[in-house]
Amino acid sequence: MKLFIFIDGSYLFKASNQNGFHYNIKELPNGLAKRLNYNFNLIKTYYYCSVPDPEYEDDIGKERARKQILGLEQLKKIPLLDVRVFKLRYGMRTLRHKVTCTHCQNEFYLNDNVLTKREKGVDICIAVDMLSQAYNNAYDVALLLTGDSDFVPAIEKVKALGKIVYCAAFQTPPFDKLAKACDDYILLNNNIGGIYPRK
């Protein structure tokens, strides 16, 4: 049976750090395929991630973005790995702070404008790729690595097309909804090839 893996890179990065792990993206797809413990033929892995826009970053952020982009260029050379890169979206957000005057004890509010950044379009791209590849019969089995329960409707549509769907995630609150939507699930830990405990 043909296996496609879809990896939400931002989730993997954040959740692995929060759970005390690091990962090797070169090894992880095969580690996940082996963990399924079936005779699946890994055809392709999609890896989705967002990178900062150097125009909006300070010197440290610019250097971090440069290194991340160079690393992603190296990942694109790995066979069977399709790397999808998105730029983070930037905007201004007003934060309101309540302040009490130390002299008169009157309360008033101060507004601070802060630069925010967020992913845009990544989840839609993952869902479209999963659905379009299922519709085209490119795979029989999908493994989605994410912690985002927003994918539940896409998972249900893929299953309605007759495909088997697994999810893989660290045990975080939305994981329960994902696990129920999928045919089976994998808890990510250092028993998976490509995931290692932080030292």
Would you spell out the secondary-structure blueprint of this structure?
Blueprint: E1 2-8, H1 9-18, E2 21-23, H2 28-35, E3 41-51, H3 59-75, E4 81-87, E5 89-100, E6 107-118, H4 122-135, E7 141-145, H5 152-160, E8 164-169, H6 175-181, E9 184-187, E10 195-197
Parallel strand pairs: 1-3, 1-7, 3-4, 7-8, 8-9
Antiparallel strand pairs: 2-10, 5-6
Helix pairs in contact: 4-5
What does this structure look like?
A hairpin with a 6-residue loop joins β5 (89-100) and β6. The protein has a single domain, classed as Rossmann fold, CATH 3.40.50. α4 packs parallel to α5 (152-160). It has a six-stranded parallel sheet, sandwiched between helices. The longest helix has 17 residues, at 59-75. It is of the alpha/beta class. It is globular and about 75 Å long. It has six helices and ten strands.
Order of helices and strands: EHEHEHEEEHEHEHEE
The biggest beta sheet is recorded as: 6 strands, parallel
The count of strands amounts to 10
Poorly predicted tracts of residues: none
CATH level 1 class label? Alpha Beta
